[in-house]
Design goal:
7 strands; alpha/beta; Spore Coat Polysaccharide Biosynthesis Protein SpsA, Chain A; single chain
Length: 250
């Protein structure tokens, strides 16, 4: 990559994912190198296993890899936000750190944002898992939660739980931040006047680590978050600004 400024950044939040670090880094390099200069930020969200050691090893092997660490676990949304803020690239692609999202799908997420004829209003590209590899109970709970979210928020997104998403860094930083916001990015981008696109992506069984969420815990937190995002959607009013004078004519 040399000293070229990165065209895009991959942000991967990680929590106790030691065994996933090396294969994830290798797959990201294979998927992203053909697209041009890139960087990846692996954000260690206060892991208590050997994740930090595996990240240090990966950093030595891959000069495009940057490692951030939270002193204590702050959650996936905080890890994503830390990675986005630290990124040097104008475009971001997020991916789960557990290896369930295939990095080979990254070019598919970035393609609409890198296209020469990209619509100016396109702000978010969401991956939609076509064949989920989670346990049956989690799939059922996710379908129910997605149906309720779509009914209340009208975001038109069938799968907000997929970690594969791509967006301009500046647009993300304009969004209101709160814990668990990563689950509501389609609604938040729509709230700010952006268009949202969807692409089908593959999904793999978890190869290492274990899920950080239970169905009950997700439901309890999600109910409060859903009401909060509904309120945010209703309170947003976008203004059309027309400059009537300025510069030398002022």
């Amino acid at each position: 990559m040399g000293r070229d400024a990165p065209l895009f950044a991959v942000v991967a939040p990680m929590k106790d994912e030691a065994e996933a670090v090396a294969p994830l880094a290798r797959e990201i390099e294979a998927a992203c190198a053909p697209l041009g200069p890139f960087e990846a930020l692996f954000v260690d969200d206060g892991s208590t296993d050997a994740t930090a050691e595996r990240l240090a090893e990966a950093r030595r092997a891959h000069p495009w890899l940057r490692v951030l660490r939270h002193a204590e676990s702050c959650g996936q949304s905080a890890a994503v936000a830390s990675g986005v803020r630290a990124a040097r690239a104008p475009l971001i692609c997020t991916i789960d750190g557990d290896g369930q999202n295939p990095p080979a799908e990254i070019p598919k997420l970035l393609a609409p944002l890198l296209a020469p004829d990209r619509p100016e209003t396109l702000g978010l590209v969401c991956g939609v898992r076509v064949a989920r590899r989670d346990a049956a109970g989690r799939r059922v709970a996710s379908r129910a939660a997605n149906a309720l979210r779509r009914a209340l928020l009208h975001d038109g997104t069938p799968d907000t739980g997929c970690g594969l998403k791509a967006f301009p860094k500046a647009a993300f930083l304009d969004l209101p931040y709160f814990d668990h916001m990563h689950r509501y990015l389609p609604s938040l981008f729509l709230r700010d006047g952006w268009a949202v696109a969807h692409v089908d992506v593959d999904h793999r069984p978890r190869a290492a680590g274990r899920t950080k969420y239970s169905n009950v815990g997700r439901a309890l937190v999600g109910a409060l978050d859903l009401v909060g995002v509904w309120w945010l959607m209703r309170r947003r009013r976008l203004a059309t600004v027309v400059e009537v004078a300025g510069g030398a004519d002022a």
